[in-house]
Amino acid sequence: MQETEFQAWTTKAVENRVIEAAETLMLCPRAHGPADIRNSMPDTILEQHAAYGASRPRYRRTPTPGALDRMEKCWEWINALPDQAERELLYEWARIKCGKGCTLATLAKINGYTERGLRRKITHICAEISLRLNAAHVANTELASKQWAEDRTPVRLNEHKRLNHWMQENAKPAVDAELPKRRSVQRI
């Protein structure tokens, strides 16, 4: 096992982890209450071949096990804050940063801050969390995983920037000059 040196938590790393936790929470299936359960019977399908495509396919992204573990740890950090108003503010800020709910300006106005004041308050809360994590010597694996990813050779999906990448640099395409400039496909 490769040992890595201790990486201190920064305010930005805590902010990123809180936002990732909110995104992971949104990927989790929500709890269904009695109002969400309507009918357990499926729609009636009269013929077998009509069953295909009877309803629209549903695709749902699921969170990874690592993301779920990080989310639970992050919620523990937030719930360890002594002030409930700060916890609620951080939860709501992360939810809005994920694209759900109102805007940050509206959140600032609701809580009696300016937009800059809200940003300073969130930075202060995350700095408090990072100080607690560094005091407890909690390892920041985010930086170590980034360094590990930088050491690996990147896989380039679009390696070729031009259509004739397979030709040599000084090669010229062979075009018959006797053919007309504009051609069309004739249907048979």
Automatic annotation (TrEMBL):
Q: What region holds the DUF6362 domain?
A: 34-110
Protein name per UniProt: DUF6362 domain-containing protein
